[in-house]
Design brief:
The complex is a heterodimer of chains A (301) and B (171).
Chain A lengths: L1 H10 L6 H9 L2 H11 L10 H42 L4 E5 L6 E4 L5 E4 L4 E5 L7 E12 L6 E4 L3 E5 L3 E7 L2 E8 L1 E6 L2 E6 L2 E6 L2 E6 L11 E8 H12 L2 E5 L8 E7 L3 H12 L1 E5 L3 E6 L2
Parallel strand pairs in A: 5-6, 15-18
Antiparallel strand pairs in A: 1-4, 2-3, 3-5, 4-5, 5-8, 6-7, 7-10, 8-9, 9-12, 10-11, 12-13, 14-16, 17-18
Chain B lengths: L1 H5 L5 H23 L5 H14 L6 H19 L22 H20 L2 H11 L5 H8 L3 H20 L2
Helix pairs in contact in B: 2-3, 2-4, 2-6, 3-4, 5-8, 6-8, 7-8
The chains are: A alpha+beta (301), B mainly alpha (171).
């Protein structure tokens, strides 16, 4: 189409021949086209500043780089802070208070409500300071004597069972697979395997190898508080373990098997190792020799 | 060796040359395509920042298409299918005093219609037409900028012209 070709040529600002110009002048749409073409400049894009534009791009790229490094370092510092503060709260600021005793050490602990706990050697208790007033709960691993101030229910949780009381004096010994609870004053409730047992003053229970025994106790507090460990029909192996804890020493046995048939009733002192080991070995007719860091117990030939 | 160095857009002098060559075209392209509402200048600048960040991956020969693609995508991310309205400059004509009010009114009316007509064009028509009519670019140059054939440019401009006339005349 001739018209289209000429208009395209005109649009490309090419010089037109007289004949072509003539042709366009005669076209009635051409006047409109001319006006449109002229007025298009009204819609011209705003001028941009090439020089400053380039500068700002260069600046921006530099800024971005340094910003990135800066942010990077900031996140690192922040991460370290978070970890440090986090671990501080986790390890040092825990509301859970834990008290441990090493072998050969006993410790007296006052709970927030004036209740008292005396921890035997190699034991630990933990309790939550913050929730104490509404919830008197102590986790126990080992042996401890409790003097509970009057108040709401006081519960001692061990891995084998729970003991709860209102206000009393009682002792709990939980070692390995056995637990012994002695009540000296008031009334104690023991919950083992979902079984609840009421333990009045002067009574004790022993739960050993899934077997429950009740018996009477003597005295008005645990003998270990007076520096003596007392046992009533307890396997010899357990007695040795307690001995190891009290004297922080190892007991080795030689040509001797600690069967279930060796039961010990009696006590040993915490004050003299020689007397103590004698009081255990004599009833069984066993020999012993005390070395620097161990005691060898053997059957008499 | 020097040739190797020049192959890098990371070289500041190379980058500057690319900027000077393409900045305006990219800006105009974005402006005519999407209008002024979406800050075409900012997008153009951003595209150059992206080029700088990727300067190791983009050879100078690919810089132009990289810039156009990035700039276009930046725009598309923001376009919400709104109609493009190009602002016409409010120019003070020098011989304002001698013109009668009716003429001025008519001119205003005309530009308003023109504005609407431009909005009704396709993006490609509008870009080609305005690059040609307002920036005074030859068809060949536009073809280079848009990476299309000269024939296609001619077709777009001619189509735009016809359509604008139709819109203004209300045919």
């Amino acid at each position: 189409m001739k018209e289209e070709e000429i208009i395209k040529k005109w649009l490309d600002n090419e010089t037109l021949s007289g004949e072509e110009l003539q042709f366009l002048q005669e076209n009635k749409a051409f006047k409109d086209y001319q006006k449109i073409a002229e007025n298009a400049t009204y819609f011209k894009a705003p001028q941009i500043d090439i020089h400053n534009g380039l500068k700002s791009v260069v600046e921006k790229t530099r800024e971005k780089k340094s910003k990135k490094v800066w942010i990077n370092q900031l996140t690192r510092i922040a991460a370290i802070l978070v970890i440090a503060i986090g671990s501080y709260f986790l390890f040092f600021h825990s509301t859970q208070t834990q008290i441990d005793t090493l072998a050969n050490v006993t410790k007296q602990v006052s709970l927030p409500d004036d209740s008292e706990v005396i921890l035997n050697a190699g034991s630990s208790i933990s309790y939550n300071k913050d929730t104490w007033t509404g919830n008197r709960e102590v986790h126990l691993d080992g042996e401890a004597f409790f003097k509970v101030a009057k108040g709401k229910k006081f519960t001692v949780i061990t891995s084998l069972g729970e003991v709860s009381v209102l206000g009393t004096q009682f002792n709990i010994r939980q070692r390995d697979n056995s637990i012994y609870v002695d009540c000296y004053e008031g009334l104690v409730e023991v919950k083992i395997n979902n079984k609840r047992i009421k333990l009045p003053a002067g009574n004790s229970i022993a739960f050993r190898n899934e077997q429950l025994n009740e018996y009477e106790n003597t005295g008005n507090s645990s003998t270990w508080l007076q520096g003596k460990s007392t046992f009533k029909s307890v396997p010899l192996r357990e007695v040795f373990k307690e001995f190891e804890r009290q004297y922080d020493i190892k007991i080795q046995t030689k040509n001797l098997t600690l069967n279930q048939d060796k039961w010990f009733t009696g006590s040993f002192t915490h004050k003299n190792i020689e007397t103590a080991i004698k009081s255990i070995t004599l009833p069984f007719g066993l020999d012993y020799s005390i070395q620097e860091d161990e005691i060898i117990v053997s059957a008499r030939e | 060796m020097t040739k190797n160095l020049q192959d890098h857009v990371c070289e500041e002098s190379v980058f500057a040359r690319i900027y000077e060559k393409h900045a305006k075209n990219i800006h105009d392209f974005l402006y005519y395509k999407f209008g002024e509402l979406l800050q075409p200048e900012d997008k153009m600048q951003e595209a150059f920042v992206k080029l700088w960040q990727n300067c190791k991956k983009v050879p100078p020969s690919k810089a132009k298409s990289f810039l156009f693609t990035v700039a276009n995508n930046l725009m598309l991310n923001e376009v919400k299918h709104q109609k493009v309205v190009l602002k016409y400059e409010k120019r003070k004509t020098q011989h304002q005093d001698h013109q009668d009010p009716q003429f001025l009114l008519e001119e205003q009316e005309y530009l308003k219609k023109y504005q609407k007509a431009l909005a009704s064009l396709t993006e490609s028509q509008r870009v080609a037409f305005l690059l040609n009519r307002t920036e005074g670019k030859k068809h060949k140059e536009i073809a280079e900028i848009l990476n299309i054939s000269q024939k296609a440019v001619e077709k777009r401009i001619y189509g735009a012209l016809k359509k604008i006339r139709k819109e203004i005349k209300g045919i």
